[in-house]
Design a protein that fits this description.
It contains no helices and 111 strands. The protein has 1301 residues and is mainly β.
Length: 1301
């Protein structure tokens, strides 16, 4: 009738290649390598014989069509034909290689895995992960067939520098050296690039100076600089402003200001890298240079001195050896110092040589390793470079020496070494000492008891026992420690106590007093002898003094015996006078100051120190620097001021140095000093006494002291936040209560926390009150509770640590029951106490809790009628959590959609387990009924364990089916306080209505057909303007992903309808302006590609239902009858002889061909019904030549007249698949001619064996006559001449039977 031509075509996009990946040839994956790039992918569509492959790679790759070649594989085997590189050029930010097929290959089928390799591709010039590879297949004209990209690029590694070396000059440990770095590049380094030299550990660029660099090769680099790499002190970056370094270039540069490692030995290897840019993002080449050998440095100055007299070493003397030196390099903890003594010295003489003392303190372990003349000290604390070090070694015996002349010890040696033994610094020529013969020993004791208090004046008694004879005119030289003074208040004299003869003081030089025996006694050579020195003042400061020295002499220059280490007494402080103290505030934890008043006995220096040690007990300690810096303020009778106060928080000791120009004179009274910015102890009670001491400059020694009692401390308030929070504020609940309090004052590890609950709380409900889940406090608790006072005390067990002031403590308290009704409780009381129960902090007004109603133990709602929109009775059953006393109320309610007073007035029909009487009130608007109980004494409480029921009448159910919820029950006190409440009780499901009629009709009833669907239904109940209609299709139908819906007649004609599909369900939502009334007829067409089941017969019933707009409730539901489907048509169907002709009665192969309309599953059947005369043998077989891979089993049915073929290959066959099947082992009819017609059908597997498609009256095949054998003819004997009349006999053997007719 009509026609149109040349209509515009449609745009086809390329399909997606899968499994795209790229790789580089093994061993050729570094920057600048030249190798082969292979891209592997799997196609969707075939690639023609003259097709092409286009590969896009990172633009940093380089290649040319003139040098690169291509090869490929398909499925791991060689690709047919040949490949050639047509072009390689930059395009779209990538290097694009086009490879074309030629040479007479075959088409590459879709789904093939192809690998294309391109040779002679040069990698990017620096390490990186490249961009992803793109690949596409195309036609010879360039049209793209499939395309795709790899998920990522390939990784390019750095190439290798060669001939890398580093040398250091000088190469001694710890020296600042110049490093010469040399190497040969593999790849070029551009302008803007850089060279990084990574120095080994302990060999670092010197952080104290700016580095410089000189590039000796190659030439042409300008603006060269060197700098440490930020964040890595071992790395030095060399960069330049212009010029570049070519690949294969020899590079040599010198770096200044490199500090060698601090020990001798191997430096470790150096790493050198070249970079594409100075930001050091991309490595080009890298290499490693060998280690440099570091030698020891020089240790100077250095000295060793041993036991000596007046600077000369004493022969055979055993004593301490003092070793001093200045380090050039640091010696780490675990290192050592070796002292080599000259020949003749003996170590560990009379005891084990050890370190007696050292500077810096703690530098050495006390134990010394001794081997021959070597004493090795173990370094226990790192000694920095440039440190003056000294160590005193015990039990060192000097060499033997008997000459009257002065000799020499010989030179010493000192060296430092690292923990592994590597030398650091060394001095092998430490100067020798002068040597003389030994001096006798003198046993001496000093009695200073008369002047033991600091600054006292009196006698000093010296007692001695000589080794050698002291003549009656000999000298005794007593050298007092520097702290003592002679001629104090007069002239010091010498008086014999037990020494024979009289004595005279013949000289005082500094601290040395020379006493001469006056020749009126006898020589002494043994025994104990004493004398006194008068007018001696003890040190004006307490503590130990230096040693006394006593010598006996034959003359002024000849020492007989001596003792230079005579221990003196320990001086004690003298007494401060009239000492007292007052406080500015005495509240526990309060800011306060202490005013000390006293008089001094000894002078207090202008730069002296005042020390005040405040008392501390297990419960009471002062805090310092409170609301400011603790300071000493002079109030009166002391000139100047005090410096900052140093505080020892362990001993509670304060010290400050006077900043004055004059001393406080000895005997000065009325001195007042205030100590500011203190905090009182956090626990009330008696504090104790403060120890006040005056000391010398630097606090070295005490001068005067006193113990002064401090006034008693009184009790303070908790800080915010302070609160109590419950995990369950329901009435009668037993929650976890979280107690939060912030301490004004610290709480000790054995302190106590306390909470007192308001009335109506019950302690110990469900078990003893417990505490746990704490924060801000560690350790355990011992918990006690007092029912009468409702107080819970949590005593800390001491296993934790003290809680600091200002700390917010959180504790969880369990087994405390809430009040049984809702409302806000009165305040809680929190407190902290010391372990002696003294209050520390308290808050008696912690806000109460707002208690909310509890839920019931059990609730249930039942309906007498379950139909939607019907009159029903509602029965409420519940078990209270909290007791409900007489005079209380019970309120029951029904959910939205239900109505009261329906068909009559709502009232209480029945009740159970409610003692006494009650009245009821109905609130139809609120949908509630309230029962008010009487207050008679005989009326009992409703309690837990009692199930109460109330039934109300004349209630209308919701007008839609489905689950119900929103029923409520509340119990209240007479004042309205809520005990328990349930506001969303689920009821029984309502039964939806039944549609009055429903039908679903596909537009075609052929199996497997694509159809539209017509739906019609008659409503029993109304449906909202935006209500929903659902149609559930039987499982054999296939529903489209999208569908349009058109109202065709009835109530929805012309109405906007929206359709959607989920699984087997078609959902249609109205867009009308009003609800549809009951009995309305709704008819609509669903337009889309619905597909009928692929088999004949009944489809199964449809389910149709109407729903509320939110789909939460079914209004009406019904079933639409199934439809009966006819078979689909097999097309291009035929049956022919596979190898014609076939002779009558012979066994032949039939070739069966057809195209299916409905898909076949693996296991489905094809039946071939043959015309009369055809018989399938028991060995019938089947072989499919199309589609590829299909396999069938064959069997004979109906006495051999039907051949059944079963599809045995996996995967089945989709609609439109064409089959060609050869069926062997079939005997053809025994007469020639054209056979009768054939029929074909496909059937589903399984019990239904339903027909899918069919074809009938297929043309028969032509059968030719079979061959008689042994055919011969003869004439009757004697009748074989011309004209004879006789019998002709023909003889033959048949193949097939000859029928009776």
């Amino acid at each position: 009738r009509d026609s149109a031509t040349n209509l515009s075509g449609v745009t086809i996009s390329a399909n997606d290649l899968s499994g795209v990946s790229a790789s580089l040839a093994s061993g050729l994956r570094d920057a600048g390598d030249v190798g082969t790039v292979t891209v592997t992918f799997t196609t969707v569509n075939p690639v023609p014989v003259d097709g092409r492959f286009v590969i896009g790679m990172d633009a940093e790759f380089s290649a040319s069509a003139g040098t690169s070649s291509a090869s490929g594989t398909v499925g791991g085997s060689g690709m047919s034909g040949t490949l050639s590189v047509s072009s390689i050029a930059g395009s779209g930010g990538k290097l694009v290689a086009t490879i074309v097929r030629s040479g007479g290959g075959s088409e590459i089928s879709g789904g093939s895995t192809i690998a294309i390799s391109v040779t002679s591709v040069t990698n990017p010039g620096y390490a990186q992960t490249t961009e992803a590879f793109d690949v596409s297949t195309g036609t010879s004209s360039g049209a793209v067939i499939d395309s795709g990209s790899s998920s990522g690029g390939v990784t390019i590694g750095a190439s290798e520098l060669t001939s890398a070396s580093v040398s250091l000059s000088p190469s001694s440990a710890g020296s600042i050296a110049e490093a010469t770095v040399s190497f040969v590049t593999d790849n070029a380094v551009p302008s803007g690039g850089g060279i990084v030299v990574e120095f080994p550990t302990d060999t670092v660029p010197d952080a104290t100076s700016s580095m410089s660099v000189v590039v000796t090769s190659p030439s042409g680099l300008s603006g060269v600089s060197a700098s440490r790499v930020s964040g890595n002190a071992q790395h030095v970056l060399v960069q330049w402003s212009s010029g570049s370094v070519s690949g294969g270039a020899s590079v040599s540069l010198r770096l200044s200001d490199v500090r060698n490692r601090g020990v001798s030995g191997s430096s470790g290897t150096f790493v050198i890298r070249t970079y594409q840019e100075s930001a050091l993002t991309h490595v080009i080449d890298e290499g490693e240079a060998g280690a440099v050998t570091i030698g020891p440095n020089v240790l100077s100055p250095a000295d060793v001195s041993t036991a000596s007299l007046e600077g000369i070493v004493l022969s055979d003397e055993v004593g301490n050896a003092s070793v001093t030196f200045l380090t050039t390099n640091a010696v780490s903890s675990g290192g050592s110092v070796r002292v080599v003594f000259p020949s003749g010295f003996t170590l560990s003489s009379g005891g084990t040589t050890s370190v007696v003392s050292a500077t810096p303190s703690g530098s050495f372990a006390s134990a010394v390793s001794v081997s021959g003349q070597n004493a090795t000290l173990s370094v226990s604390s790192t000694i920095a470079s440039g440190t003056s070090v000294s160590a005193v070694l015990s039990h060192v015996k000097n060499p033997s020496y008997t000459s009257e002349n002065i000799g020499s010890t010989g030179a010493y040696a000192i060296e430092t070494a690292a923990s592994g033994g590597a030398l650091i610094d060394r001095n092998a020529s430490v100067p020798s000492d002068a040597l003389r013969r030994r001096v006798g020993s003198l046993v001496v004791s000093i009695d200073a008891s008369a002047i033991i208090k600091a600054g006292s004046v009196g006698d000093l008694i010296v007692t001695f026992s000589p080794s050698f004879t002291l003549e009656n005119d000999g000298l005794i030289v007593v050298t007092l420690p520097s702290e003592y003074a002679v001629n104090a208040g007069g002239t010091t004299a010498a008086q014999s106590v037990s020494l024979s003869g009289s004595l005279s003081v013949v000289g005082v030089s500094g601290q040395s007093v020379t006493v001469r025996r006056n020749s009126d006694g006898t020589a002494v050579s043994a025994g104990t002898h004493s004398f006194r020195l008068t007018r001696v003042r003890s040190p004006t400061q307490a503590g130990g003094t230096g040693p006394f020295a006593v010598q006996t002499r034959r003359s002024a220059s000849y020492v007989i015996d001596q003792n230079t280490t005579v221990a003196g007494p320990t001086i004690v402080p003298n007494d401060l006078t009239s000492a007292s103290v007052s406080v500015s505030a005495s509240t526990a934890g309060a800011a306060t100051s202490l005013l000390f008043s006293f008089g001094v006995f000894n002078e207090m220096p202008a730069n002296g120190v005042l020390r005040i040690q405040l008392p501390s007990t297990a419960f009471q300690q002062y805090s310092f620097n409170f609301n400011g810096t603790t300071a000493f303020e002079i109030v009166q009778n002391m000139q100047g001021s005090f410096g900052s106060v140093s505080i020892n928080t362990t001993t509670y000791t304060l010290e400050a140095t006077r900043l004055a120009t004059s001393a406080v004179a000895a005997g000065q009274g009325g001195v007042q000093v205030r100590v500011t910015h203190l905090r009182q102890p956090v626990v009330s009670g008696s504090v104790g006494s403060a120890a006040v001491t005056t000391l010398t400059s630097g606090g070295g020694a005490a001068i005067d002291a006193a113990s002064i009692a401090i006034p008693v401390v009184s009790a303070a308030a908790l800080l915010p936040p302070t609160s109590l929070v419950s995990t369950d504020v329901r009435s009668g609940a037993v929650p976890v209560l979280t107690m939060t309090l912030t301490l004004e004052n610290a709480l000790a590890a054995n302190g106590k926390l306390e909470v007192t609950f308001p009335t109506s709380f019950t302690l110990g409900s469900g078990g003893s009150v417990g505490v746990g889940g704490q924060s801000g406090v560690d350790g355990g608790f011992s918990v006690t509770s007092e029912t009468s006072t409702r107080r819970v005390t949590m005593a800390r067990d001491g296993s934790g640590s003290a809680i600091a002031e200002g700390t917010t403590v959180v504790l969880n308290i369990t087994n405390v029951q809430n009040p049984p009704f809702a409302g806000t409780t009165s305040a809680f009381q929190f407190a902290t106490r010391a372990s002696n129960d003294e209050l520390i902090d308290v808050n008696n007004a912690v806000p109460g809790l707002t208690i909310v109603p509890n839920v019931f133990v059990y609730t249930n709602v039942s309906l007498s009628v379950l139909n939607s929109g019907s009159e029903t009775n509602v029965t409420f059953m519940f078990e209270p959590t909290n007791d409900v006393p007489r005079g209380s109320r019970i309120v029951v309610g029904v959910p939205s959609g239900f109505a009261l007073n329906f068909g009559g007035s709502t009232g209480v029909l029945t009740s159970a387990n409610i003692s006494g009487s009650f009245t009821s009130a109905v609130d139809a608007g609120a949908r509630t009924v309230t029962l008010t109980r009487d207050t008679f004494i005989t009326t009992t409480a409703l309690s837990k364990g009692t199930v109460v029921s109330v039934t109300i009448s004349h209630v209308r159910t919701r007008q839609s089916g489905g689950a119900t919820s929103g029923f409520s029950v509340t119990t209240r006190s007479s004042s309205g306080a809520v005990y328990d409440e349930a506001s969303d009780i689920s009821g029984p499901a309502l039964i939806p209505g039944v549609l009055k009629a429903a039908s679903v009709t596909p537009s075609s009833l052929v199996a497997g057909a694509s159809v539209n669907v017509s739906v019609s239904l008659t409503l029993r109940n109304p449906i909202a303007s935006n209500g929903v209609i659902e149609v559930v299709f039987p499982s054999g139908f296939t529903l489209p992903s999208s569908v349009s819906v058109v109202g065709t007649s009835g109530a929805v004609s012309g109405e906007t309808l929206s359709g959607s599909v989920s699984g087997q369900t078609l959902k249609v939502q109205r867009g009308g302006s009003s609800a549809l009334a009951a009995d309305s007829v709704v008819t609509f067409n669903a337009i889309g590609s619905f597909v009928n089941p692929g088999v004949t017969g009944g489809s199964g019933a449809f389910t149709v239902r109407t729903l509320t707009p939110d789909e939460s409730g079914i209004i009406d539901a019904g079933e639409a009858a199934e439809v009966t489907l006819s078979a689909g048509a097999l097309t291009s169907a035929s049956v022919a002889l596979a190898n014609p002709p076939a002779k009558a009665g012979s066994t032949a192969t039939l070739r069966v061909s057809f195209t299916i309309a409905n898909a076949l599953a693996s296991g489905d059947f094809v039946r071939v019904a043959m015309p009369s005369g055809f018989v399938a043998s028991s060995s019938v077989g089947a072989s499919a030549s199309a589609p590829g891979g299909a396999t069938f089993g064959a069997s004979a049915l109906s006495g051999g007249s039907v051949v059944e073929l079963q599809l045995t290959s996996s995967g089945g066959a989709s609609s439109g698949t064409s089959f060609v099947i050869d069926v062997s082992g079939v005997r053809v009819p025994e007469v020639s001619g054209t056979s009768g017609t054939f029929s074909l059908e496909t059937r589903a597997a399984g019990s239904s064996n339903a027909t899918r498609d069919s074809a009938t009256n297929l043309s028969g095949v032509t059968i030719s006559a079979n061959d008689l054998s042994g055919v011969s003819a003869s004439l009757a004997s004697g009748l074989r001449d011309a004209g004879d009349v006789g019998t002709v006999t023909v003889t033959f053997t048949t193949v097939n039977p000859v029928p009776v007719d």
